[in-house]
Every structure is written in C-alpha cells, then in structure tokens.
Sequence to fold (256 residues):
Amino acid sequence: MLAVRDLSMSFAGLRALSGVSFEVREGEVRAVIGPNGAGKTTLFNLITGALVPQAGELSFAGASLLGRGAPAIARLGLARTFQQAQLYRSLSVIENVLLGCHAAGRSGLVACGLGLGRARAEEHAARLWAQECLARVGYAGREDRIASELPLGEQRYVEIARALATRPRLLLLDEPAAGLNDSETDALADLLLQLRQSGLSLLVIEHHMRFVMRVSDRIVVLNFGEKIADGVPAAIRQDPAVIAAYLGNDDGTART
Fold:
C-alpha cells in the first residue's frame, strides 16, 4: 500500500533521514520506533506532504506522492494524528470531527454553512458520518462537549475520529499513547486492533514498547536517521542492534 524508497532529508546540514526504505501492506499495523531524534516525525511529515524529500521515492497504492501537497495526499486516502492532539479547542467534539468530513467532501465549508443546494444534503450526511466515526472510537453521545474541556485521552480519541472522518485507507498515528495511563493505553491498543480488523491499515510511531509489541504486525527501527532493523515484533525484541540503540535500559523500558 505504502512504499518508502531510499528516503533522505537534511536540515541545515544535519541528516534527519538517510536512505530509509520500507513498506506498509494493506490491512497491517506497521510501527516505527527509535530514540528521540531518530527521524520518525520527519518521516511522517514527508509521507503526508508537510515536507518535500531531498531524495527518494514515496508511493501510495501505486501513485507517487512526490509533488503533491498535503490536501491532495489526504484525498488519496492518507490521514494522520499528531504528537499533541490538535483539536480546535473552542469547537465542540462533533464540530471538530465535521472538519474531517468537509476535508473529504465536495461542497466545502462556505456552501455548507450557507445551506446551499446539494450542500445541505451533504451537511446532513456529514453529520451522520461524524457520529458514526465517534461511535467507532467509543465516543457516541458526547458530541456536544467542548474540546477544551476534554482530558488528554479523550482528545486523542476525538482526533482519531476526525481522521477516520476523511475515510482513509491508511492512518498514521504519531505517538498516540503518549501521556496515557496503563488502562488508557490498553484501551487504545484494543481500538487500533479493531480498526485493523475493519480493513484499515495503520502506521504508528510510538515509544511505549508494550503497546507497540501488542498492536504491530511488523516494526521498523530508526536510529540517527538510518534504518537499523525491520521485522516482526519477536525478532525486533531480540535484535542486538535494537537492544543496543533503543531497548537496553536496565528496567526494560525503551531509551528515549
């Protein structure tokens, strides 16, 4: 589904990524792990069009992503969340999710806001779809809550619902478990596995190793911008290079 080939990127002479290659298959959960500064978020920014790679190729479902802006890439079927949940704090939950619906719609926000022609029907359909997306993440019945009032864990679910509202084929999640307690992390893992069961592919950046090992089909490991390992969780857990670079803390937690 997603092919990353020899991807490289530098900032002011500092190499953020160097010749990174891997694939995401349809219907799988693929994780990207590595220490802070390994290039993980730069990778996401390149895939989603926020940055333009200096070298390498990116393709999605056979279509090149190079030269496409972020909106065009989103319309191909890629959506993402961020390290810090980026909700519009003064808007309600349903209004935040509706923004994802409008990103995938035809009539646009102005026409829908004025209730013009086809836009009125599209707005009604968008609201129903937004409610369905909220139900998928277990947030039904709380559509009118204001985003600024939500705790971090609930903000992450709303952001995932907004991403789902764009009807993606591949969802990119940037540290979705950051700041969550153990029970919240387990619940999030359950949700991601349910989304995969529904046919959605996922690419996940995460430091929480128990979470990563539970949800991932395959893992790629970055260190100083280079790929040092790629394989199934059991193999990654035993890889000497990964242990030395990232998994070698005495308490069993990943180095950050």
Q: What stands out?
A: The chain has ten helices and ten strands. The mean pLDDT is 89. Residues 117-136 form the longest helix (20 residues). The two ends are 29 Å apart (CA to CA).
